[in-house]
From TrEMBL, chains A, B, C, D, E, F:
Gene3D superfamilies xrefs: AhpD-like
Protein species of origin: Kutzneria chonburiensis
The protein's name: Carboxymuconolactone decarboxylase family protein
Pfam families: CMD (PF02627)
Domain Carboxymuconolactone decarboxylase-like: 38-123
Matches recorded under InterPro entries: 4CMD/NDH-1_regulator, AhpD-like, CMD-like
């Protein structure tokens, strides 16, 4: 396997992982970056998913809990949070667990970040017909 | 008083505080979260205003100076800053004091954050007919 | 139940939750703040653990995954991360899962944050005799 | 020279520097802040460009590399990044160098920040007819 | 007045302002940067205090409330927070008001930032013999 | 080339790049993480330097300008900044250029971040006998 072949292999592996958990959003990432930074698209997929996400040390559901925490804390990552709320639903987190993670965020990064993240979750849930959320209360 | 009654009491107290300083924005917060995370709405009001904001150790005007500093520094909190610029005006800060706090922010969190916050202030001032700001210069 | 009694009840509830998951660190939090900001200590325990953490919508293990993500992303929270790495071990996360969450963080908040968090994890694992971590590789 | 004259001199100097590197965007900054915070506009120009940017210790191209790194890392500075991607092109950075700086950012502040910055770069490049970027790959 | 003379005048003005509010810490700032970045020291004093802080639109006490909010929100600014807690006391904020501002911060930037800032306040209060804080509770 | 061989090849390539620009610090990174997160060490080297840093689209000197900007803006990355100030000197940035980049940072992320970064630079310069910095003033 040459370096070029390996590069392709990791990319293919990452694309398979990303498409599986994101419900087939891989091509959209590639397309949006094709004419400006194809290498960033490549690395998002090949490294982020082909190297890291696929590792068995954390199952996808658990990775999503960590990721929702990080994106909520960072702020200004609404586009990425949208993808990851969708992905979280795809890998088995419930709407109630997702909004609870964002409530937990209020105490660690403050209410504004928690409110902004929850607004993104609401949009995603609405688009998937998951409102109102049954939080068991 | 049962736990449930107390929970309601704190909420009622927080809603009264929030409505007073925000000019009646409490129901909008509740409504926006009702079908996605009612607990986040509850805690924003019951804890943020019923437990913390109402404390006498800082008057509302002073809390708003702190809060404008924090929201400007955090970045990506335009929605919350909009509420708090309005609230700041309601509790006695002048437009000139608000924009001066954001000018002070340039030195502590940089010009981009100061410029973004000032753009929000401008929107709020415009909606309330407070432009141009008389900064005494 | 008077307001004062309820305040105490929430605090007691939070202290029980925090002590259970943190291995009895509650008094240390209270002591460290007793002469400077007892209310901050009270709210950390009574609200953070007596209101939020105890909710059944996310089990402690899942809350810790979210929290590790947030503290890693925030940066500059080494003291809190130390408590939460300990807590994470107490509620069932393995060392391998914790460092994997921090590896995942490299892609979402960058390698410096991931490296700083992992250094804290290493300290905690060392103190508990958990090195070397068996990451299955 | 009186204090007032000096204040004007620094402003004029800053406006000349900013207009040269930004392609004449100075008046837009002044206009956008004229009725809300003229002092913030003044200091952006007089201090940011009349005092700092004009210093010979770093040439404009190098300042732009630093600035793109900072704005990408901060997040939530899309408006400022737009100005600075334009400025970067004006002072000699190529589109390929700009997107490479943002790819480098993926490793230091994470992919979400890198992706958001690259989306801004894409908009600017599109408006200037610079797509597709020739990254030499 | 030549450009050089004016530069000196602003610096002198800033040094007078900074020394007054900080209790004479100006020379320490200058000394610490003298052999590495004298221009950063100059601008901290000449711009930060000679241009901005001295403006009458906010009194020093109010600037300190904003600044405590910002430094708490930024995180990782313990050294600057130490100076500003001292300055806050010098310009009339009480220990109880300072810790209340940091309690308010818990809701806007999360408990970890609030706890870290309060730890700095505690150090400063201890050094000035101001513990325990009388928070009126 | 098998997947394992390729993994090793990227690592070797990254280690060569990192050692060249950092003056041989590669093994220290590996050693510090060996018993806690060897995969994080691997990816820091194999991906960060074997995939990204080695790309010809930006020369090392330019990557360091971007990186200094990012690490200064992030805050709380003193350990990484120490490595990168050293690396910056190794790849041709002068002490005067490095401190000027950090002065530029004052305007974009505020004086506290600029001051903290400059303190790290001062330590590195002192250890290499480069004080006082000749800033040409």
């Amino acid at each position: 396997m040459t370096e070029h072949e390996d590069r392709q292999a990791r990319y293919d592996r990452g694309m398979a992982v990303f498409n599986e958990v994101s419900g087939g959003q891989g091509q959209a990432v590639i397309d949006s970056l094709a004419d400006v930074s194809p290498e960033l698209a490549h690395q998002t997929i090949a490294w982020g998913f082909g190297e890291i996400y696929r590792r068995p040390q954390l199952v996808p559901r658990d990775r999503q809990l960590v990721t929702i925490g990080m994106l909520t804390a960072l702020g200004g990552c609404e586009a990425q949070l949208r993808v990851h709320v969708n992905t979280s639903l795809n890998v088995g987190l419930t709407p109630a667990e997702i909004v609870e993670a964002m409530l937990q965020a209020a105490g660690y990064c403050g209410f504004p970040r928690a409110l902004n993240a929850t607004a993104v979750a609401k949009e995603v849930f609405a688009a998937r017909g998951l409102l109102p959320v049954d939080t068991g209360e």
